Amino acid sequence: MSSRSFDDNHSSPALEKQFSDDLREKLIEAILLSCGLVSVFTTFGIVFIIFQVTFEFFQQVSLAEFFLDIQWTPLFAERHFGVWPLINGTFLTTAIAMLVAVPLGLASAIYLAEYAKPKVANILRPAVELLSGVPTVVYGYFALLFVTPLLRKFFPLEIFNALSAGLMMGIMIMPTVSSISLDSIRAVPSSLREGSYALGLTKLETIYKVVLPAALSGITASIILGISRAVGETMTVLIAAGQEPKMTLNPLEAISTMTAYMAQISGGDSPRGSVNFKTLYAVGAVLFLITLALNIVSYWVTNRFKEKYD
Q: CA 221, 226, 229 angle in degrees (round to 5)?
């Protein structure tokens, strides 16, 4: 047997193994690509359906009536389709929630990152994040049955009100703000802290003048993400805030949010294909555009203020 035929016989299994490995890699790549495309096509499908029905809605209701009217009564005999009362209720509860979530979340992140001992931090962080695993319907009923009766001893609250719903939403969102802020603070290089201490700054001054500005992009992103979650929250506001769309800044009154109205319509009270049913998609389109804008702002802020270290 010649040396050439000997080399061919021995290289053939190696070529077959290489071909098999390449085929396996391409198969895995195709599977992963398919999984990614499923999420992309699902998103596009949802957006397409929402805006298709929204377009049909605006063929029956004018844009001026939807965006310029300040009354929302599509289920009444005298129908009005002004979306601003729903937007007002959404942002009112969101503002109350963020007034609770940002201070508590940021303070807990600072403590866990800068003050707590490792053993204490390993216990407290899962305990804080556990709050985000509580079902939102539990928060809603807790706000209605405990928080509201407690607050009514001090304030003239209605049974359903924006204050109780906003407070519980703040507690619910706080772990999100805390977790992302904590990761951002821990990502700040220790050399910045050491340089600050070398200049004579105290630990508190180092945190507020060095660490927090360096972690600003992550902290800001956590706040915007918290706002997005508050805007999209459903069950808490549906149970605790009521279903009375109105233009008010008084947190003691009952209000309705966009998500609460969508949950009300999806219960089946309005016939499919009716203009009342299509309001579900119109409100959903507005909610989608608001959350999309918040995500774009979050992405821009993260890249604009991102600190880079060598």
A: 125
